[in-house]
Design goal:
alpha/beta; D-Maltodextrin-Binding Protein, domain 2; 5-stranded mixed sheet; about 45% helix; globular
């Protein structure tokens, strides 16, 4: 009986030596909660849209996506947190064009990252159009009327924006460059102050979020002459290129990014999941009820191109109007 036992033991030892210890299989991504960093305060429109998206992405991936607010420094504080996070796909940014482009255009010395180098684009979620708005009782029935008057009366019309460096301000500068019109810029701190100034007659026109003007249009107090993006409910309001100009105005946008260097196997899961979530009809309907958002998915490649184009355009405008020292 001893010989069969010895043979069996020998075979087991040989098998164990030849096979070796079984490797520990890495669990596929994602296998734990994902943190979505929102570089703005709770209750802001960026925060609200991000939280809706986080809920949808969690359902798509089958894991929890936890929204975390990290406001400060025009969105750059939270965005920088993601840049410096572990490159494993478990910390993502839901951030805006201000943090990715315009903060770097105007204050490059205070932004600790290079968006093109330090962040991995994962997809663009939405745009929100800016409107050029006047009082309903003004003599300008169309954008062309407004520009004709401004050309003949340089500097007479006061144009309100959310301040130097805002997307609205850049749109004012682009308008002047394209049309030859000249306005007197009146900057405000944002919020409702821009609309309030127009309603009170302190400025003749404003560049501000399209959705803010809509209630006052419906009440017969304001008229929107131009939009930076076509809207479903106001299809007759033109964009500037529809009027024959060669360049579109800017529309602010929100997008998803990861720290540069995230593994390919993570991106292969994450990018399709983000696209599926953004295009989900139920989520799209919820998001588009907020602040006049236009859900318009763009691929990582398209987002990267958009960031580069807006950065170069912003640098050119900032140099032209003296907001930035030329290198």
């Amino acid at each position: 009986m001893k010989r069969p036992i010895l043979i069996t033991v020998s075979l087991l030892i040989a098998y164990g030596v030849s096979v070796g210890p079984l490797p520990i299989q890495a669990q596929p991504y994602p296998n734990r909660p994902i943190q979505l960093v929102i570089p703005n305060v709770p209750g802001s429109v960026l925060d609200i849209s991000a939280r809706l998206f986080a809920e949808g992405l969690g359902k798509t991936l089958g894991t929890q996506v936890i929204a975390m607010n990290k406001p400060g420094a025009s969105g750059t504080l939270g965005t920088d947190m993601v840049v410096k996070s572990k490159k494993d796909g478990y910390t993502l940014a839901y951030t805006n064009v201000a943090a990715l482009v315009y903060a770097r255009v105007l204050n490059p010395e205070t932004v600790p990252y290079d968006s093109a180098r330090d962040l991995e684009p994962l997809g663009l979620h939405l745009f929100f159009p800016v409107g050029v708005t006047v009082q309903e009782g003004s003599p300008w029935k169309t954008f062309t009327d407004l520009i004709d008057y401004a050309r003949k009366n340089p500097g007479k019309l006061r144009a309100g924006t959310r301040g130097v460096g805002s997307t609205d301000y850049f749109n004012l500068e682009i308008t002047q460059s394209l049309t030859g019109a000249q306005f007197t810029h009146v900057p405000f701190k944002g919020g409702e102050s821009v609309i309030t100034a127009l309603l009170g007659g302190h400025v003749e026109l404003i560049y501000d979020a399209f959705s803010k003007s809509v209630p006052h249009v419906e009440s017969g107090k304001l008229r929107i002459l131009l939009t930076t993006k076509k809207t479903r409910d106001y299809p007759n309001i033109p964009t500037i290129t529809e009027l024959g100009y060669t360049q579109d105005l800017l529309s602010p946008w929100y997008a998803l990014l990861a720290p540069a260097g995230v593994p390919e196997e993570v991106k292969k899961v994450l990018i399709p999941a983000i696209e599926k979530t953004i295009k989900d009809p139920e989520l799209k309907a919820k998001v588009e009820k907020l602040e006049g958002f236009i859900v318009d998915y763009k691929s990582p490649g398209d987002l990267k191109t958009l960031m580069a184009e807006e950065y170069e355009r912003g640098i050119a405008i900032a140099n032209k109007v003296g907001l930035r020292k030329k290198n």
